TrEMBL record, chains A, B, C:
SUPFAM superfamilies: Bet v1-like, ISP domain. Residues 39-151 form the Rieske domain. This is (2Fe-2S) ferredoxin. One of its GO terms (molecular function) is iron ion binding. CDD domains: RHO_alpha_C_GbcA-like (cd08884), Rieske_RO_Alpha_N (cd03469). Keywords: 2Fe-2S, Iron, Iron-sulfur, Metal-binding, Oxidoreductase.
């Protein structure tokens, strides 16, 4: 106790309105999700030319398609003529073109308008030719990394290296560390989609801290005993949580998993690393598989989370049973999302008007809060007001 | 290509916000649907004194009732005392009065307050008599045409002749053309109600153009081969689309319909005429029947459409099978409404912020867009901004 | 008729917007329901230490709990750490503490923070001790009366005596009248929860007047014949409606009830008294039981009503059949709530923009309207504007 007799003050979180306001959510969609690189599709899901997937990015429906030249491209899912959605199914395959079923405007897989019925040579009524790219599909910036297609709706996308790759490097402490897992060469072993009645930031905050691990994750704490102390792997640069001495694999019962991925260093074996790639990706690294979460916020109080379990190609090819490793993180997911759903309703309470508090083991969450506030162009005082 | 090397520009549609904004929809309800003549009820549905129907006009629940004197009248469906809805059922029949079930205030079928329990001689507590019309049901303007009851919520309704009749005359090019069908004397053969997840203006635009006919209406194009060229009958004054040479009736398979309606001119036989009566009625004329659509917009993205198939009285009286003619336009309706529902979600995309484009075959839609904009009291620049 | 030949004018109600506007509803939650004493829980429902109930008060989830010292306390249902709801079940029992399941922050039943994992001696990261009440549960003011727990979310609650007790005394005309029923000692015989699609004020207005009794309450009018004249017991101070001469009990068929409660005066026997305790409680007194309604407004057009039937302890202990007395007011409730639900949709009509009218038998409702307007800080002109 100090001489002035003041009692200690804990660090504050964001105020409750950040988790409930439709206006804040709309600003987040515009300033964060439509302005950042977003992990959209596993590239291997679009192996063949003409294959496409429809993904919700911010408030936009985006088509990711593999063109005839083998390259992936992304477009807004809107016909330039009268605005019909080109694709209403979540995925599919076409031969050479995307054809709007309403008036048959037809686009090449690079977006160019190649046909429109009854417009002779695509001229307007003065006879002048129309620009087939100007009236082509609206393109969306796209890159590939870790075997995923990342897209960005911004007119001028931020640097992928500095944002996405930079966050992974900053967490692992070493630019080469992620490469050793060879994530782009892994195969999908299992995928589960969760529909969570909670704000996306509650899911991020939950993923970033481990103060709750001893309360709600008994299976995970059995595998990673240090998590019982409440310090998240993400509190430290380059730290991976070590498996318990009697644990033989990252599975629901600690039983053996599969062979260690070939490129890993000794410091990466028998360790669990967790990385938050803001705004919406979580990467979980263990010696024999990777778990990757993608979040799609649909409303201030609703977020869809797609979770992939990736394994070495031979594990998937041989049809090995991945149930026990899937089950471990599936339970963690369920436990986490239930906690987030229990928290969401209290965000509108007067008790949370100025937010809650962070204990020392959660102090790294404050940086996430500051990042959100700065992305929304708010001052810190306003955000916590 | 001109000397300045500019490429051609297509005519723009309304911007996407016109189809999604709750504020625009509220303005449309106030300025368009509550300020125009709206086709409410087939008069023959209210044949007997005391019969009533409840209809949604703009944001108001309206009762249309046939009074003891045989005349039709319309009122707001609200008791003047404490506001209970007089009728909650969609239709019914009373003897001499409409009686509010809450406190038993009772109104004659001309709207006059005729009884209120325990108010001696309908005086207030000073003993002064109350005005039985002032506290009677709120009347709504009403007229009859084509066998339908049209109502208008405006304090000063526009001229029915200049608006409703005027639009029909303008399209057919001849004030007497519609009269020759004798629509008011026809009988209802079939009615289907559709609940469409799309803005009402998308439904109007779809009805007005035929550029989509070859894409989505195979049965209709079989009957009306010129529709394959994409020019709507509505692009021309007085033009009816001609039946194909091997077509014997306006039916789903081109098989014979019923006898040509007695008053038709030769120019009206073997022809399909389509008329849009803004804001919410479509009239389809063929030699042996009439198809009339009424739209009731419930939200920016939801519209109920009621479609009547009308035949000569002897066709209905004899119980002739109308299935094949009903099936043709029922399929057209389903095809059209599915296209509108596919379009609605894209209206909120940034790709449609400034609207889409009109091809020459759709240029007459621009006049509809200008009408909407002017009715909302917006400038054109604002509307397309 | 006066010399100026004006016809009589009836007193106006509140305008329709008061019953439909989300903004008005939010203001009512803040200024009325979160600023008044609200009847929350029957105290006997929390007989044992550790028993708790979760109640919605205004926009807040409130926990009412009986502590180890036998006293009742109320708290916001929000963990002070990261905002999870402490209890998601509607009721339950704990041993000595309320423990948040997310991070295991643990509170004594007086709200004090007694444990938080991994925070040594509850210090912050400077080593300073944190204030265990500052970070304890947020307390809510609480008192007991009539055997119920009443809570108030206001920082400075109004006088319970002047508001709640004052309203009962004002209605009964005598401070001792309510005491003679010994309501706090009665036992719960039956409870029904109604979910009503209507604004809470429509339910209050309906309860306050009896002009509708002859229209919709045949069973009640059989028991209380004077109600056929439309004057509510609440129109007069100290007036109880007298049972009909052939009525032997306050039951659905007038058959005998139970013994008269021991303390009643002769003036209270064979009488029905009704009291509105604003904003949300109705008390109904008859010689052998009490019916108490509590309203919980959830939206401008939705209100949950919980209705308790209370009897002398020996009636409940002996397991006497209370069906016939429950059935009488259950029918009245159903009839009333159906009338309110029929009224709610018309509140948004232009016909009710400036409200409806009050007949002389309803003039006491105007005082309720003025109370609402003054609580919302509006001028009367504004309210009726």
């Amino acid at each position: 106790m100090t001489a002035t007799e003041q009692s200690a003050t804990l660090l504050a979180t964001l105020g409750g309105e950040f988790y409930t306001s439709a206006a804040v959510f709309a600003a987040e969609q515009a300033e964060i999700f439509e302005n950042s690189w977003i992990c959209a599709v596993r590239a291997a899901d679009l192996a063949q030319p003409g294959q496409f997937k429809k993904v919700q990015i911010g408030r936009e429906s985006v088509l990711v398609v593999r063109a005839r030249d083998g390259l992936l491209r992304a477009f807004l899912n809107v016909c330039r003529h009268r605005g019909a959605q080109l694709c209403t199914e979540s995925e599919g395959q076409v031969r050479r073109t995307l054809r709007c079923p309403y008036h048959a405007w037809t686009y090449a897989l690079d977006g160019k308008l190649v046909a429109a019925p009854n417009i002779v040579a695509l001229t307007d009524n003065t006879g002048a030719a129309i620009d087939r790219y100007r009236y082509g599909l609206v393109p969306v910036a796209l890159t590939e990394w870790l075997g995923y297609v990342w897209v960005c709706l911004a007119d001028v996308p931020p640097s992928f290296e500095e944002t996405v790759v930079g966050e992974v490097t900053l967490r692992l402490g070493d630019a080469a560390a992620i490469d050793r897992y060879g994530v782009e060469g892994l195969k999908l072993g299992h995928r589960i989609v969760y529909d969570v009645a909670a704000n996306w930031k509650l899911i991020v905050e939950n993923f970033m801290e481990c103060y709750h691990c001893s309360s709600i994750h008994p299976e995970l704490v059995d595998v990673l005993p240090e998590f019982a102390r409440g310090m998240a792997a993400q509190s430290f640069v380059g730290h991976g949580a070590e498996f318990g001495s009697d644990i033989t694999g990252f599975t629901v019962d600690g039983s053996p998993g599969f062979g260690t991925l070939p490129g890993l260093s000794d410091e990466q074996d028998r360790r669990y690393f967790a990385i938050t790639v803001r705004p919406s990706v979580f990467v979980n690294l263990v010696p024999d598989h990777i778990i990757l979460h993608r979040m799609y916020p649909l409303a201030a109080d609703r977020t869809v989370v797609e979770c992939d379990w990736l394994y070495a190609p031979d594990v998937v090819a041989a049809g090995h049973d991945v149930t026990r490793s899937v089950e471990l993180f599936h339970r963690v997911n369920q436990q986490d999302f239930e906690a987030c759903e229990r928290t969401q309703p209290a965000m509108s309470s007067r008790a949370y008007r100025h937010g809650g508090v962070l204990v020392p083991a959660e102090h790294h969450l404050a940086e996430f809060h500051q990042w959100v506030v700065s992305r929304l162009g708010m001052s810190d005082g306003c955000a916590r007001g």
